[in-house]
Amino acid sequence: xxxxxxxxxxxxxxxxxxxxxxxxxxxxxxxxxxxxxxxxxxxxxxxxxxxxxxxxxxxxxxxxxxxxxxxxxxxxxxxxxxxxxxxxxxxxxxxxxxxxxxxxxxxxxxxxxxxxxxxxxxxxxxxxxxxxxxxxxxxxxxxxxxxxxxxxxxxxxxxxxxxxxxxxxxxxxxxxxxxxxxxxxxxxxxxxxxxxxxxxxxxxxxxxxxxxxxxxxxxxxxxxxxxxxxxxxxxxxxxxxxxxxxxxxxxxxxxxxxxxxxxxxxxxxxxx
Length: 272
Fold this sequence. Notes:
Blueprint: H1 10-19, H2 22-36, H3 105-120, E1 123-127, E2 142-150, E3 158-163, E4 167-172, E5 176-180, H4 192-207, E6 211-217, E7 222-228, E8 235-240, H5 247-258
Antiparallel strand pairs: 1-2, 2-3, 3-4, 4-5, 6-7, 7-8
C-alpha cells in the first residue's frame, strides 16, 4: 500500500502494531499525518488518440530481415524468442549476449521507416553524427544519425541513431529515448522481429499523433510519456525521474511542453 515515495507492507505493519508500544504507534501516526499533508501528485494524463493517414497514402512495408540460425558454443541451436517457454531464464543467461549480430537487420528497418516518413509526411530530414547528441542516454559506436522533423508546430520530431552494437536508439519529442533492442542478453531473449515490431509501432504512432509527453509532473517533477498505438494494438506509458542531463535541456523541455498541453500533434501529410 502506498505510492512511489512511500510504501507499507500491510501484513508486516499489522504484525508490528500488535507488538508496538505507545511511542512506536505515535511515531507511525506522525509519519502518516505528515504524508497526508503532502500535495498529491497530478492525475495521470489521458491517453492520446492517434490519427492514421487517410486511404491512398503509401503503406509502410518492412524490409526483409535475414533468416539466420544461431548456435551456442556447444553447437546447440538457440531458438531465440522461444528459449525459455513458460519457465524462467537460466541463471547463467543474464548478462550474456551470445549473438548481438542477430539485430543487424534493425538498421535496415530504421532506414526504411525514415524513407516512409519522408514519402508520406511533410518533413525535413537531416543527417550527421552530431545529431546523436540529441539522445539523453549514452550511445556508443554511432554509425549514423538522422533527424526527421515535421513541418508543423506542436508535432514531435524523431531522431534515429544507428549504433555498432548493432541497434537503434530513437529519440522522440524532447525527453524520451527508446532503445531497440532494450536488452540483447540471452535471458531477455529478444529477436530482431519483435524488436522491429516495437520500433515500427513507436515511429508510426508518433507520426499519427499518438504520443504524449509531460514534464514536470507532480511534486517529484517526474517525466512522463504515453503512447496509443496507431493501429489500435494497445498502449503504454512510463513515468519517473528524467535521465540525468544538463539542466538547460530540462528547462527547454518544460518550456516546449507548455505549448503542447495535450498530445503531440499528428504530422502533416505531403501536399496537404
